[in-house]
Amino acid sequence: MKRFFLLIAISLFVFKYARAQKIDTLSITLENVKYPYPVKYFPISTEGQDIKMAYMDVAPTSAANGRTVILFHGKNFGGYYWGNVIKALASAGFRVLVPDQIGFGKSSKPFIHYSFHQMAFWNKKLMDTLGIQKASVLGHSMGGMLATRFALLYPDQTEKLLLENPIGLEDYKTFVPYQTTEQQYQTELKTTAESVRKYYQSSYFTYWKPEYETLVSVAGGVTFSADYPRWAKVAALTYTMIYEQPVVYEFQNLKVPTVLFIGKEDKTIVGKGLLSPDQQTLHGQYKFLGKQTAAKIPGAKIVEFDACGHIPHVEIPTEFLVALTGSL
């Protein structure tokens, strides 16, 4: 009899675990993640593959000012975390274009050569298709590297360059040990919701709040998917892109009005886990990097936020949105 009840208890545990896992499981194209605005798809053909780029195209909700802002997300995110920024900009009269870059969010996850040049080209093609001749470009984190590349390639289509805690303010390959894409892939395969939470807590925010769990639920939820190895491989490919394609040496070549928005407590380093604690203290110091970068860009302005980490639009939304709309 005891064995019978033990088997029942084990079965119930397995059922509950499987059910919890099913609830937490996300597809690697985030079909079951609700975005703040309707999502459309832009078809792209590259390297013999037909793929699609997801995007939100949000019309102004007040008197239209005839201007557009395009938002470039960070490496660990997609368009879903821009909701408050979209709402504020649309309310101020802007059209807001929010792509999920290829390899991220609801967009396709192809095995291709990833490059910031190609991503910039695809975003320019999307703008052309939608009849957008010029836009202010806001890039967060990895999106800051992409926004910088876009402004360098297409200055005539860039009204303003807006960089929110961009990565790539240092050349990581000069101090982070080299990892092959395969080695990075093996690292990505070990990702769990708990490891995501710990990383976000230690790297992205000055104080952890319950509402940040929604970010963890997306990044952690895909790890349960049977297709997660594809997500992990693409994550490794885009890590290599960041490592091998710095923009730090070209800031002085920018020819568009530029504003940096810097959370001063940010200590993000791409490949941080490969460094010793002593080495980590020498890099990723945004309270210095922000000013140093602004000094390299002709005519650049900088807005700094105290007691704020890597994602000002999430951690201090009111202050960030006031600064952003004022800069526009």
Automatic annotation (TrEMBL):
What cellular component terms from Gene Ontology apply here? membrane
Q: Which one GO biological process term can you cite for this protein?
A: acylglycerol catabolic process
**Does Cell wall biogenesis/degradation show up as a keyword for this record?**
no
Cleaved signal peptide residues:
1-20
Q: Any idea which UniProt keywords this protein has?
A: Hydrolase, Signal
- InterPro entries from the xrefs? AB_hydrolase_1, AB_hydrolase_fold, AB_hydrolase_sf, Epox_hydrolase-like
Asked if the keyword Signal belongs to this entry, the reply reads yes
- AB hydrolase-1 domain span: 68-315
Recorded hits in SUPFAM superfamilies, A to Z, give: alpha/beta-Hydrolases (SSF53474)
Name any one Pfam family assigned in the record: Abhydrolase_1
Lineage top rank: taxon: Bacteria
Question: Under the GO molecular function aspect, what terms does this record hold?
Answer: monoacylglycerol lipase activity
Among PANTHER family, the record links this protein to: HYDROLASE, PUTATIVE (AFU_ORTHOLOGUE AFUA_2G14860)-RELATED, MONOACYLGLYCEROL LIPASE
Name by which UniProt lists this protein: Alpha/beta hydrolase
Source organism (scientific name) = Pedobacter yonginense
